[in-house]
Amino acid sequence: MLLKLIVADLKMMFRDRVSLFWALAFPVMFMGVFALFNLDEPPRVDLAVVEQTPGPLGQPLRQALSRMELFETKDEPSEAEALRKLRNGDYDVVLVLPGPAGEQRAQAYYNVANMQLNQMALSALERFFDEFNLQASGVQPVVRLEQQAVSGRDVGYMDFLVPGILGMGLMQYAIIGMATVLVGYRAKRILRRIQTTPLPVSRFVLAQVAAFLVLSLLQTSVILGAGRLVGADIPGTFFWAFPLALLGNFVFLNIGIVVAGLTSTEPAAAGMGNAIGLPLMFLSGVFFPTDQLPPFLAKAVSFLPLAPLLEALRAVLLDGEPVLTAWREVLLVGVWALVSLALAVRTFRLE
After folding, report:
1. Residue 301: is its pLDDT beyond 80?
2. Three-state SS for 75?
3. Is residue 297 within 8 Å of 291, Cβ to Cβ?
4. Shortest CA distance to 161 belongs to which of 40, 250, 276?
5. Which pLDDT score, from 0 to 100, does residue 145 have?
6. For residue 107, which phi and psi values (nearest 5 degrees)?
């Protein structure tokens, strides 16, 4: 009987094209949009180089600057015109080179609208002129830095994003999908009518949960497959992603049942589901690492269900680690599964 109910629920899910879109197509589209942007490209500084009066250092300085990857250099004949473009946002930094006579001093102007990028540019220019002065004066450095590259795992932004999109898709569809389905059943008095049949309501809801869990396996396959198509490098095995997806989805389904118990209409259930899901989505490391958050907020978010789920997914998918290496994160999600189940049982209602 339970298997037949699960199959029936799955058939209803696949007939609901809009819900299926939100479960499968929307996360893939989200990922595709991010793939259009080259977010792994290091920032470039638009640098205008002004040499109004040619001097002996102008040519070697310009050639050396053009070899620096940080700068996108362009010659400007007029200091006034270069500063006008700087104020308009066409340049980040304007560098006026020294002339043929007088004190050999270069002047850098920068746009205060982008201080983080420009501080990096000014630091690079200071190091550049220090090294240039040493070479020009023939001074041998006391200590010379030798660099040696060591091959390592380079995690690109799309690599980081794919597990995040997977967690986001599982969470959003589970919370909102389960909440709106149960509220709809309750509004149509379907749950109350089931009480008059030999079928226990608990088994009916269990079949609904099982159908969502089966769909989460399809979600996981589609999103990870789409990630490979858009160029994400996922060296780990996909195998452990599926039990993690089931565990995380179980937590979010329980939260969906809680939302259904606290609301009376489908729009209200969807609204509360979004109110829960959106902060988790933006704070739990879907798009950016949580260490970019204020320390107190990053610590608080690490105890919510989505953040440890994403940490575990990235450990097995990006680092190729066995799932037990992320045992703390898995344990925390497991605790959330028990807590959310208790809350779901407590708040579930037929009317």
Report:
1. yes
2. strand
3. no
4. 40
5. 58
6. -115, 125
Q: Are 169 and 223 in contact (CB under 8 A)?
A: yes
The number of residues making up the chain comes to 351
Would you give the DSSP letter of residue 323? G
Least confident of 22-36, 109-123, 179-193, 265-279: 109-123
CA distance 156 to 259: 36
Cα angle 232, 238, 241; round to 5? 105
Does residue 92 sit in helix, strand or coil? coil
User: Which tokens hold the place of 210?
Assistant: 């099982």
AA letter at 89: G
CA quadruple 51, 55, 60, 64: dihedral positive or negative? negative
Alpha-carbon distance of 62 to 70, in angstroms, equals 14
- pTM for this prediction: 0.77
Query: Which CATH superfamily includes the segment(s) 45-137?
Result: abc type-2 transporter like domain (3.40.1710.10)
Q: What is the full DSSP assignment across 285-305?
A: TSSS-GGGS-HHHHHHHTTSS
Residue ranges per structural domain of the chain: 2-38+156-347, 45-137
Q: How far apart are CA 346 and CA 203, in angstroms?
A: 16
* Mean of pLDDT values over 270-275: 93
Phi, psi at 318, each rounded to 5°:
-95, -40
Structure tokens, 180: 């709106």
Cβ burial 312-331 (10 Å sphere, 16+ → b, else e): bbbbbbbeebebeebeebbe
CA angle at 16 for the pair 255 and 167, rounded to the nearest 5°:
40
Evaluate whether 158 touches 227 at the Cβ level (below 8 Å). Answer: yes
Task: Indicate whether 140 pLDDT > 70.
Answer: no
